[in-house]
What we know:
- By secondary structure, the chain is of the alpha+beta class.
- Helices cover 40% and strands 22% of the residues.
- It has helices spanning 9-31, 35-49, 105-119, 134-142; strands at 2-6, 59-66, 71-79, 88-96, 124-127.
- A five-stranded mixed sheet has the order 1-2-3-4-5, covered by helices on one side.
- Strand 4, helix 3 and strand 5 form a beta-alpha-beta unit.
- The chain is globular and about 50 Å long.
Amino acid sequence: MVFFQEMSEEYFREYSAVRNEEYAESIARSNHLPKEAALERAQRQWAELLPQGVRTGGQSLFEVWDERSQTRVGTIWYGENKGMDPGTLFIFDLYIDPSHRQKGFGGQVLLEVERRADALGMTRLALHVFGDNETALRLYKRLGYRVTDLLMAKPI
């Protein structure tokens, strides 16, 4: 089983630097953008969504820990997304460390977020996933998520 621990300011700085870089790589790969342009887009989005870092209202950022081994296995960030329908809790970032993947932690995290969303009176969870992330897509489908919008592109 997993448990959530509020993300500290110190860990947030490390987390945001690494996840911004990884997010930019996904943006560059998916949109055929130069890495610099993708990194600029990622950093701009991050700054808009988390202007006060971990203290940004309406956002929840946690470290995810394995109860059994007392090891940090990943992170989760969820909260309000002004572009979503009322009653929707948006999962901005679910990250499981590569050495802890395929062990059930991702599913446990999503179920815990679902439990928390229900306790808040939310009626829907939503998230974004890059089309080439097949492992995540399989997990989301297995847990009952369905595609609600699909953007496709073809390089020419």
